[in-house]
Design brief:
With about 375 residues, the chain is an alpha/beta fold. Helices cover about 45% and strands about 15% of the residues. A hairpin with a 5-residue loop joins strand 4 and strand 5. The structure holds adenosine-5'-diphosphate and magnesium ion.
C-alpha cells in the first residue's frame, strides 16, 4: 500500500505571505479584511480563480475612517507600488456627461479626442509592476453611484468587461475590484452610543470589537447595504467585509504608523539634504491622541490632529531655518498644556540607519534600538536643562 503524506492547506506561499506582512503592518485592527484579500490573492497565484471574471470583488462596509480605502491602498502598495490604483469616486459620476470621463465619449461627440477615459485598458495596465500584472480598481462610496455607473459596475463584476465610448473592450480579468460604502454607519453609531433610558451608556470601541456587539455591528451594516443594493449586485460579490470601529489601542498603533510616515516624508524631502530626526514624548503623544480621538471619524480625526498640531508647526520651523539637516528634534508638551513644544538637540544621530529602518517597516522608535537610545539620551539631557 502506498504511503500517504499529510498536507497542510493552512500554509501560504511566500508571495502571499509577504502581502500579508505588508497588510498587517499598514492596516491596523481589520484582520478579516487582511485575510480575505490574502486568500483571494493566493487563489489567483495558484491559477484557481474563476475565469472570465475579475480576480476578486470585495465590498467593504463600516464606519468612516476605519481603513476601508487604506486597505486597498496598502494592497496595491504591497504588490505593485504606492498609489498604483485606478480609483473611481462614485459621487463624481452622477450625470451622463460625467460617465464619459470614465469610459470616453463616442466618436463624433464633442470632446471625443480630448477625453482620456479613466477606465481604459491603458489605465489598468499602467498600474502593473514588472513582476505583478494585476490591477487594483477601487469604486469608493458606491452608494452614491448613478444608475449608469451601476450598469457599468455590474458588467465588470459579471463578465470582467467594459465597453468604452469608442466601442473598445476593457478586460478586467486581471483586476481586483474593491467597493466601499459606509451605509449602515449611523446604525453602528447608535449601537455604540445607545440613547435609551435615562442613563445613556457609551459602549467603548474595545467592547464593540468582540462578542455580541461586534455581531450586531456586522448585522446592522449588512442589513443596510442589502436594503440599498439589488440582489443582482449582491450575488456577484465574492467577499463582503465589515470594518470594525477602532479601539484606543489600535488608534495608538495607527498614530505610531502615521508618525513614522511623517519621519519618512522628512527624510525624503529636499532630496534628503534637509533631513532631520524627531521624537515625541509620551505626554505629547497622549495629548495628540486625545485631540485626535472622535468616535465618529475613526482615524481620520487623528490624522488631521497630527497634520495640524505637528506637521504644520514643523514646516514653519523648516522654512524659518530653525531646524537644519542632521538635527534631532524633541517634541513635548509645555507645563500648562497648550501647543506642542519643539526643542532642538545637537547630537548627531545616524539618520541613515533611521531611514533604513523605516524603509524596512519599523513603525516606532522602540523598534530602532540605536535611534531610540540616542533619542532617550537627548530627551533626558534636554529635560535636565528645562
Ligand atoms: N485600520 C487602519 N489602519 C491604518 N490606518 C488607518 C486605519 N483606518 C484609518 N486609517 C488612517 O486614516 C485614514 C483614513 O482612513 P480611510 O481608509 O480613508 O477610511 P475609510 O474607512 O473611510 O475609507 C487613512 O489614510 C489612514 O491613514
Ligand atoms: Mg474611504
Amino acid at each position: 500500500m502506498s504511503t500517504r503524506i499529510e498536507l497542510d492547506p493552512s500554509r501560504t506561499g511566500s508571495q502571499a505571505q509577504s502581502l500579508e506582512g505588508t497588510l498587517r503592518r499598514l492596516v491596523v485592527g481589520q484582520d478579516e479584511a487582511v485575510e480575505q484579500i490574502v486568500n483571494v490573492y493566493q487563489m489567483y497565484l495558484a491559477g484557481l480563480h474563476a475565469p472570465n471574471r475579475p480576480i476578486g470583488s470585495f465590498l467593504f462596509l463600516g464606519p468612516t475612517g476605519t481603513g476601508k480605502t487604506r486597505a486597498v491602498e496598502a494592497t496595491a502598495e504591497g504588490l505593485v507600488g504606492q498609489g498604483k490604483i485606478v480609483k473611481v469616486d462614485c459621487a463624481e459620476f452622477q450625470h451622463s456627461h460625467e460617465i464619459a470621463k470614465l469610459v470616453g465619449s463616442p466618436p463624433g461627440y464633442l470632446g471625443h479626442r480630448e477625453t482620456h477615459a479613466l477606465l481604459s485598458q491603458e489605465a489598468l495596465n499602467s498600474c502593473h509592476s514588472a513582476s505583478v500584472k494585476v490591477s487594483f480598481v477601487l469604486f469608493d462610496e458606491i452608494e452614491k453611484a448613478s444608475d449608469a455607473l451601476w450598469n457599468l459596475l455590474l458588467g465588470i463584476l459579471d463578465k470582467a468587461v467594459l465597453t468604452t465610448g469608442d466601442n473598445r473592450r476593457v478586460n478586467f480579468s486581471q483586476s481586483m475590484i474593491f467597493m466601499t460604502s459606509n451605509l449602515g454607519a449611523a446604525g453602528v453609531q447608535s449601537i455604540l452610543q445607545p440613547k435609551l433610558g435615562f442613563q445613556p451608556r457609551l459602549i467603548g470601541c474595545d467592547e464593540a470589537r468582540t462578542g455580541g456587539v461586534s455581531d450586531r455591528i456586522v448585522k446592522t451594516s449588512v442589513k443596510a447595504a442589502r436594503r440599498k443594493f439589488t440582489p443582482e449586485f449582491w450575488n456577484r460579490l465574492d467577499k463582503v467585509v465589515v470594518f470594525r470601529p477602532l479601539a484606543q489601542a489600535q488608534l495608538r498603533r495607527i498614530f505610531d504608523l502615521e508618525l513614522s510616515f511623517v519621519q519618512q516624508r522628512i527624510l525624503q524631502a529636499g532630496g534628503g539634504d534637509r533631513s532631520f530626526g524627531f521624537s515625541v514624548s509620551d505626554a505629547a503623544k497622549n495629548m495628540l491622541l486625545e485631540q485626535g480621538t472622535a468616535a465618529e471619524y475613526g482615524a481620520r480625526h487623528l490624522k488631521r490632529a497630527i497634520e495640524r498640531l505637528l506637521v504644520q508647526p514643523l514646516s514653519k520651523l523648516i522654512s524659518s531655518q530653525q531646524v537644519r539637516a542632521g538635527d534631532w528634534l524633541i517634541m513635548d508638551v509645555g507645563d500648562s498644556g497648550g501647543p506642542l513644544r519643539f526643542q532642538r538637540g545637537q547630537e548627531n544621530i545616524a539618520l541613515n540607519s533611521l531611514a533604513q529602518a523605516l524603509q524596512e517597516g519599523a513603525t516606532s522608535w522602540t523598534q530602532i534600538p540605536k535611534v531610540a537610545a540616542a533619542a532617550r539620551g537627548q530627551m533626558q539631557r534636554l529635560s535636565r536643562r528645562i
